[in-house]
Design a protein that fits this description.
heterodimer; A: about 120 residues; alpha/beta; five-stranded parallel beta sheet; B: about 725 residues; Four Helix Bundle (Hemerythrin (Met), subunit A); 5 domains; seven-stranded mixed beta sheet; five-stranded mixed beta sheet; 25 helices; 23 strands; about 45% helix
Chain lengths: ~120, ~725
C-alpha cells in the first residue's frame, strides 16, 4: 500500500501542484486548506507524511505543527515545511515547532519526491 | 496538460489575491494598519510569488519578492506604516497586477525597476543579489556517462552521529537516515550505548543511543552532509573523511550488533523507557529494535515525558479556538445560474397563469384552492428572491478598482485625491456589476480630472490639498443608487452653457435651470476634442456614459454646487432579469411601463390638453406643459385620437429629468414581469425595450421610456405654461 501524504496549503495552485507531483510518484494525496483544516484531515486520513505551508490564514504552519506535536497524533509523523522563505530564522522556528524538514518553494518535483521519500515509512 | 490547468488555477487565484491585496491596502490606508489585514496582504503577495516560482515566472517572482520584503517591514512593526508608504504599496499593487497580466498573456514584460527601487529605498531594503532559483528545469542526464566513474574514486567516511531528544520529537527516525546513507554506498553502522546509563539512573530526555557509521561511497562530503541536513541542530554530528586504501573493517559490524542485542536483559513491559527486544532478523529491524530499547518510541510520542502532555496545547483546544469567520462558498458556472433564473422566470409566468385560471373558475380566496394558491405565490416570491440573490454580489470589487483609477488620474494630472467608499457591501446583480465598471471608471476619471482642482487652487480656496472622491452605494426602493461625490470646484455653468451654445446643443435663447445646465455635460456631442485631456478623454464622452447606464435600465444625472463640488447620481435596477412593471391597456394591447420611470398617474381631462403647432399635443402638469405620448398611435396600434377626454395619463421621467405624459386607456395593475429580450428572440424594435409573457400567456411589450421621452422632448421641448392658455 502506498503512503499517504497530507498537503496543507492555502493556495489552490500549490495544492494542485503538490497533488500532481505526489500522485505522479505513487503517493495517495489528501489536501487541506489551512492548519485548522489540516488538523481535521489528519484525524480523518492518518497520513504517513505531512507537507505544510507556513503562511496560511486561520491557523498558520507553525501553529499547525505545534498542535500536531502537542499530542493526540502519531508522534513520529514526519512534517515537512514547504515555504518560499528560505531564511534560517524561519527554518529554526519551524524546527522549534517540531518540523521534521523543509522544502524550499518553488520546489523541484524530484526534490519534493526525494524529500518525502526521505521521511516516508 | 495538467500543468496548463494548474497554470489556469494559478492565474484565477492571482485575481483573488490581487483583490485581497488591494482591499487590504485600502483598508489599511483608511482605517490604519492592523495585524490581521497586514498579514492577509502579505499572504496575498506571498502566494502570488509562490505560484510564480513554480511556473518560472522570474519577473513576477522578483518583483513580488521586493514587494513582500517591503510588506514584511510593516508586518514586523505596524508603526512603520505611513500614508506615503501605503500609497507606494498601492502603486506597487497596480504594477504587480500589470506584471501578473503580462505573465498571463505572455505579453511584453512590464518594467518595474523604478518602482522596485522606490520600494527598496522607502523601506530601506537591501538590494539582494538575485537568487537564481531554478524551477522545473528538467535536465536530461545520461546515466551511461556517469557509470565510468562509479568504480573509481571511492571515498570513505567515518560518521559519528548522536541524536538528541529533539530529533525524535520532530518525527525523525535514525533508521530513515541510515536508509539514505545506505543508498549512497556501503555502510557499516555501529551502535554505541555509552550514553545510555543503567536503568536506575536512566534519563529519558537525554540518554539515547549514538552510532558510528563508516560509509564507502562515490559521493562527496557535502552529499553525505546533506543527508543530515534536517537534523543538524538535533544531533551531535561529526563527519570525517578517511583516507581510502586503509579499508580497515569496522570493529563492530551489524551482525555482531544483532548478537549483542539479543543478549540485552529483558525488561518489564510497563517500564515507560524500555521495551523488550523482539526477535531480530535483519539489520533494519535491529535498528528499529534499538530505538525501542532505548526508549525512542515512547520518547518521541511525547507521552513518556513528564509534564509534556499537559504543557502542550491539546488539539481539542486548538480546534475550539474561535476561527475567523469565513464564508463558505462554491464556484458555480454562471450559465447554470442563468438557466436557473430563466426557469424561475418561467415559473413566475406559470404561476400567474394559474392564478388567472383559478380566479376565473370562481374559487374564493378562502377556499382550499385559493389558500393553496396563495401559498404557492408566497413560495414563488421567496424562491424568486433567493434565486436572484445567488447572482447578487457585493459591489465592492468594482469600487475597489476605482481606487486604482483615482491614483492613475492623480499621477497623470499631478493632483491629489483619495477615494472614500461607503456602502460597498451593497449587493447587486452580477450582470449589472459587469456593465457598471466602464461607466463608473469614466465618471471617476471625470470627477478627478474635471472636478478636483489643482493643488494650488485647492490651497487658495482654503481646501485640503488632497481632494476627496466619495463613492456611495445604497439600496433605495428596489433600485441601487450609486453616487460619486467630489469636493472639487463644481461645474462652471457659464462655461458649460457657452460651450453648449457654441456646439448648437441648446439655442442661445433657451432659459435653462442650473440643473439642466449641469446635465448638459451628458448631451451627445458635448465633449469634443479641444477639451479632451489625457485622462478623461479616451474618445468617450459623458453621453456614452449615460447611454451605457441607460442600457442597464438605469439613469444618471449630476448636480453641482459651485466651489463645493459635484455629485453624480446613478440609479440602476437590482437585476436585469425582472422588472417592476405597470401593466397598461390601450388600443386593445397590453404594455408594460417600468415603474421606476413613473412619477404619477392622473385621470385625463380635456381641459389639461393643449395643441402646439399642427400636431403636437401637450399636457398641463401643474405649472408646465409636457409632451403627450399617446401610446396606441405612437406605436402604430391605433389612429390618432380626436378627443382627449378619456383615459389615464402616466407621467414618466427619463434619466435626464425630461418628462412626458403617456396616455393609455386604462391601468391594469402593477406586477413583476420577467424580461424577455427582443434582440435575442426577434430583433430590436424602436420604442420597445423588451417583452414579457403575461399570466394569460399573451405577450406584452415593455416600453422603452428613455427612448420615447427623449424623442418627444426633442420634438416638443418642455415649456412653462403660457399665460394665455393657463
Amino acid at each position: 500500500m502506498s503512503a499517504t501524504v497530507l498537503t496543507v496549503d492555502d493556495s489552490k495552485t500549490m495544492r494542485q501542484m503538490l497533488s500532481m507531483c505526489l500522485s505522479g510518484a505513487g503517493f495517495n494525496v489528501v489536501t487541506a486548506e489551512d492548519g485548522a483544516d489540516g488538523i481535521e484531515k489528519l484525524k480523518e486520513s492518518e497520513p504517513d507524511v505531512v507537507i505544510t505551508d507556513i503562511n496560511m490564514p486561520i491557523m498558520d504552519g507553525f501553529e499547525f505543527i505545534e498542535t500536531v506535536r502537542g499530542g493526540g497524533f502519531n508522534a513520529r509523523l514526519p512534517i515537512l515545511v514547504l515555504t518560499t522563505e528560505s531564511d534560517a530564522a524561519k527554518k529554526a522556528r519551524a524546527r522549534d515547532a517540531g518540523a521534521t524538514g523543509w522544502i524550499v518553494k518553488p520546489f523541484d518535483p524530484e526534490k519534493l519526491i526525494s524529500a518525502v521519500n526521505r521521511v516516508a515509512p | 496538460m495538467q500543468l496548463d490547468s494548474i497554470r489556469e488555477t494559478y492565474f484565477a487565484e492571482c485575481v483573488d489575491q490581487l483583490a485581497e491585496l488591494e482591499t487590504g491596502l485600502f483598508t489599511i490606508s483608511s482605517d490604519g494598519p492592523d495585524i490581521e489585514t497586514v498579514n492577509s496582504v502579505f499572504r496575498a503577495v506571498h502566494s502570488i510569488k509562490g505560484g510564480a516560482g513554480a511556473f518560472a515566472l522570474d519577473k513576477l517572482v522578483s518583483f513580488a519578492h521586493v514587494f513582500e520584503n517591503a510588506l514584511d517591514v510593516i508586518r514586523n512593526d505596524l508603526s512603520q506604516s505611513s500614508e506615503s508608504r501605503i500609497d507606494l504599496l498601492l502603486r506597487s499593487a497596480d504594477v504587480l497586477t500589470d506584471i501578473v497580466q503580462a505573465a498571463k498573456d505572455d505579453s511584453e514584460p512590464v518594467d518595474f525597476t523604478e518602482i522596485a527601487a522606490e520600494l527598496e529605498k522607502e523601506f530601506n531594503l537591501e538590494a539582494e543579489p538575485e537568487e537564481e532559483e531554478v524551477a522545473f528545469d528538467v535536465v536530461p542526464i545520461s546515466l551511461d556517462d556517469l557509470e565510468i566513474e562509479v568504480e573509481e574514486n571511492k571515498n570513505r567516511f567515518e560518521i559519528s552521529f548522536a541524536p538528541k531528544q529533539e530529533l525524535y520529537l520532530n518525527g525523525h527516525d535514525p533508521q530513515k537516515i541510515f536508509r539514505e546513507l545506505m543508498d549512497l554506498g556501503e555502510c557499516t553502522i555501529t551502535p554505541d550505548d555509552s550514553r545510555v546509563a543503567g536503568l536506575e539512573r536512566h534519563d529519558l530526555a537525554n540518554d539515547h543511543l549514538s552510532w558510528t557509521i563508516t560509509l564507502e561511497t562515490t559521493s562527496l562530503e557535502n552529499e553525505v552532509q546533506a543527508v543530515f541536513e534536517w537534523v543538524l541542530d538535533a544531533c551531535e554530528l561529526d563527519i570525517k573523511e578517511i583516507e581510502t586504501g586503509s579499508a580497515a573493517d569496522a570493529d563492530f559490524s551489524i551482525d555482531d550488533f544483532l548478537d549483542d542485542v539479543s543478549d540485552l536483559p529483558e525488561v518489564e513491559e510497563d517500564d515507560p523507557g524500555l521495551a523488550p527486544a523482539p526477535e531480530l532478523d535483519e539489520g533494519v529491524s535491529a535498528i528499529e529494535a534499538i530505538s525501542e530499547v532505548a526508549g525512542i518510541d515512547d520518547l518521541s510520542s511525547g507521552e513518556a515525558l513528564a509534564g509534556k502532555p499537559e504543557a502542550a496545547p491539546s488539539p481539542k483546544a486548538a480546534e475550539t479556538k474561535e476561527k475567523p469567520k469565513t464564508s463558505k462558498s462554491i464556484r458555480v458556472d454562471s450559465e447554470k445560474v442563468d438557466r436557473l433564473i430563466n426557469l424561475m422566470g418561467e415559473m413566475v409566468i406559470s404561476q400567474s397563469m394559474l392564478t388567472l385560471q383559478v380566479n376565473e373558475a370562481g374559487f374564493a380566496s378562502a377556499s382550499p384552492t385559493g389558500l393553496a394558491l396563495n401559498e404557492l405565490q408566497t413560495l414563488t416570491r421567496e424562491i424568486q428572491s433567493s434565486v436572484m440573490s445567488i447572482r447578487a454580489q457585493p459591489i465592492k470589487p468594482v469600487f475597489m478598482r476605482m481606487s486604482r483609477v483615482v491614483r492613475e488620474v492623480c499621477s497623470a494630472t499631478g493632483k491629489k485625491a483619495h477615494l472614500v467608499l461607503e456602502g460597498e457591501h451593497t449587493e447587486v446583480d452580477t450582470t449589472v456589476i459587469e456593465g457598471l465598471s466602464d461607466p463608473l471608471t469614466h465618471m471617476i476619471r471625470n470627477s478627478v480630472d474635471h472636478g478636483i482642482e489643482s493643488i494650488e487652487d485647492r490651497v487658495a480656496a482654503g481646501k485640503p490639498e488632497a481632494g476627496e472622491i466619495k463613492l456611495v452605494a445604497s439600496h433605495s426602493s428596489g433600485k441601487i443608487v450609486i453616487e460619486i461625490h467630489d469636493d472639487g470646484g463644481g461645474i462652471n455653468r457659464d462655461k458649460v452653457l457657452s460651450l453648449a451654445i457654441d456646439k448648437g446643443i441648446v439655442s442661445p435663447e433657451a432659459k435653462l435651470s442650473d440643473e439642466e445646465i449641469d446635465n448638459l455635460i451628458f448631451a451627445p456631442g458635448f465633449s469634443t476634442a479641444d477639451e479632451i485631456t489625457d485622462v478623461s478623454g479616451r474618445g468617450v464622452g459623458m453621453d456614452v456614459v449615460r447611454q451605457s447606464i441607460q442600457g442597464l435600465g438605469g439613469r444618471v444625472n449630476i448636480s453641482s454646487i459651485p466651489g463645493k463640488g459635484s455629485v453624480f447620481t446613478m440609479s440602476l435596477p437590482l437585476t436585469l432579469a425582472i422588472l417592476d412593471g405597470m401593466l397598461v391597456k390601450t388600443a386593445d394591447q397590453m404594455f408594460v411601463i417600468p415603474v421606476s420611470s413613473m412619477i404619477e398617474t392622473i385621470r385625463l381631462k380635456s381641459a389639461d390638453v393643449f395643441q402646439i403647432g399642427d400636431q403636437h399635443m401637450v399636457f398641463k402638469l401643474r405649472n408646465q406643459l409636457i409632451p403627450i405620448v399617446d401610446v396606441g398611435p405612437e406605436l402604430g396600434f391605433a389612429d390618432k385620437r380626436t378627443q382627449y377626454d378619456e383615459g389615464t395619463v402616466l407621467v414618466v421621467e427619463s434619466g435626464n429629468n425630461s418628462m412626458s405624459a403617456f396616455l393609455v386607456d386604462s391601468i391594469v395593475g402593477q406586477q413583476q414581469v420577467v424580461i424577455k429580450s427582443m434582440e435575442s428572440n426577434y430583433a430590436r424594435i424602436p420604442s420597445i425595450a423588451a417583452a414579457t409573457i403575461l399570466g394569460n400567456g399573451r405577450i406584452a411589450l415593455i416600453l422603452d421610456v428613455e427612448e420615447i421621452v427623449s424623442r418627444k422632448v426633442r420634438e416638443v421641448p418642455p415649456q412653462p405654461v403660457l399665460d394665455e392658455i393657463a
